[in-house]
Amino acid sequence: MDKPFIVALDFASKEEVRTFLQPFSDTSLFLKVGMELYFQEGPAMIDELKQKGHHIFLDLKLHDIPHTVKQAMKGLAKLGVDLVNVHASGGSAMMFAAIEGLEEGTPHGMSRPRCIAVTQLTSTSERVLRDELLIDRPMKETVVHYATLAYRSGLDGVVCSAQEVPLLRASFGTSFITVTPGIRFAGDNADDQVRIVTPYEAKRLGTNYIVIGRSITKAHDPYVAYERLKREWDGGK
Ligand code: C5P
């Protein structure tokens, strides 16, 4: 997990993934495989990406009873991925079980995948929080509460917006990792993301990892866009 850039492989098939990765044949990337791709291509896709030297964030956002999550995590640990996640709203027993499953499933001599929590989905508005989920507290307070629960349950970090990073950093220190989506280059289309920041702003706010999808995957030249990402992260234009 050395690189701070996680490229979201939001594709529906291995063919699309292969086409996208062609220009990166000499580069080891940190790739996010989500439900769309994993449910189509399964563990074979993970194997293929690992064999090419890439690091993997398997973004399946587990949320079930503790025993089920533990057993599922055992299986995911065997895939040798670097990072997995759960919904913090599954509660502390579920999160403890997730870590237990990862520890038990990690093959001897390998390090266990790190596990982070989703606090509230960025697609959830204050209105949905209040009227549908019946959570009567402001979003920010809810996010910090869920992050605290994740921290106390032994998770390694959270998915959060860049704006939340300084607050979480102040509460949990530097070893609790933050993974931040909603990244756009200056002047890019926001698409469906509401609160976006540039790579440099995200770094300035202190995040550990940024997740970037369409700004790279839909770029005219993804390789050039990735090089731009690296430059912008370092403060260049
Ligand atoms: O294309 P874009 O850069 O918006 O992609 C962001 C990626 O991060 C997508 O895979 C999206 O599902 C994911 N994500 C997000 N917001 C969250 C959690 C994950 O945008 N809170």
UniProtKB/TrEMBL annotation:
It comes from the Bacteria. Signal peptide: none annotated. Coiled coil: none annotated. It catalyses: orotidine 5'-phosphate + H(+) = UMP + CO2. One of its GO terms (cellular component) is cytosol. One of its GO terms (molecular function) is orotidine-5'-phosphate decarboxylase activity. SMART domains: OMPdecase. Keywords: Decarboxylase, Lyase, Pyrimidine biosynthesis. SUPFAM superfamilies: Ribulose-phoshate binding barrel (SSF51366). Residues 4-229 form the Orotidine 5'-phosphate decarboxylase domain. Substrate binds at residues 10, 32, 59-68, 122, 184, 193, 213-214. The active site is at D59 (for ompdecase activity), K61 (for ompdecase activity), K61 (proton donor), D64 (for ompdecase activity). Its EC number is 4.1.1.23. One of its GO terms (biological process) is 'de novo' UMP biosynthetic process. It is an enzyme of class 4 (lyase). Pathway: Pyrimidine metabolism; UMP biosynthesis via de novo pathway; UMP from orotate: step 2/2. CDD domains: OMP_decarboxylase_like. Pfam families: OMPdecase (PF00215). PANTHER family: OROTIDINE 5'-PHOSPHATE DECARBOXYLASE. Catalyzes the decarboxylation of orotidine 5'-monophosphate (OMP) to uridine 5'-monophosphate (UMP). Homodimer. Belongs to the OMP decarboxylase family. Type 1 subfamily. This is Orotidine 5'-phosphate decarboxylase. It comes from Anoxybacillus thermarum. The lineage of its organism: Bacteria, Bacillati, Bacillota, Bacilli, Bacillales.
